Amino acid sequence: MIETLFVSNSTWRSSKSGIKAPNSSSCSQENKVLDPKKSQNIAIMLRALNATKEEVCRALLDGQAESLGSELLEMLLKMAPSREEEIKLKECREDAVSKLGPAESFLKAVLAIPFAFKRVEAMLYITNFDLEVDYLKTSSSSSEESSAP
C-alpha cells in the first residue's frame, strides 16, 4: 500500500472512472507480477531445489515423476500462482521476460507447459501411490487383527 503512494506518475494511467490504476506493463518491472513476499519465498524454494527450470520443465513435459521426486513436486504445488498472477505472467511479452525476477521467470516457464500444475498433481499422486497402498494394507491388516475374535 505504501509503495503505491510513492510510485512515479509515469507508471500510472487514468481510467474512465477517474481512478488511477497501474499500467498493464507491470510485468516489465522486476518482481511486480507476484506479491513480493511470495516471490521471495519461491526464490528461496528454487535455490533449495537444486534443479534448473529447464530440468523441471523437461520432467513435467515428459511425465518423469521419479526424476523430480515427491518433495520437489510438493514444493512445486506450493509455488502455484493464483489465477490473477497466472494471467499476468501469461500476458508478459517475451521481451519483458528478461526483466522478471527469478520466481516470476520460473513460473512463466512452467506455465508455458499445458496444464502444468495438473501434471504436478498427477505426478505427485503417482509418486506417492505405492506408499499410500502400503499404508492402507498395514492399517487394514491391523484393524482385521484387532477385530478378530
List keywords for this structure.
149 residues; mainly alpha; Methane Monooxygenase Hydroxylase, Chain G, domain 1; two-stranded antiparallel sheet; 4% strand; disordered N terminus
- Low-pLDDT regions: 1-26
Give the overall silhouette: elongated
SSE string, helices as H and strands as E: HEEHHHHHH
* Lateral strand order in the biggest sheet: 1-2
Radius of gyration: 21 Å
Give the strand content.
under 5%
Going by helix content, strand content and strand pairing, the class is: mainly alpha
What is the residue-averaged pLDDT? 78
First and last CA, distance: 67 Å
Largest sheet: 2 strands, antiparallel
| CATH C-level name of the domain at 27-127 | Mainly Alpha
CATH fold-level topology of the domain at 27-127: Methane Monooxygenase Hydroxylase, Chain G, domain 1
Membrane topology: Single-pass membrane protein
Domain FH2: 1-149
Protein name: FH2 domain-containing protein
Family: Belongs to the formin-like family. Class-I subfamily.
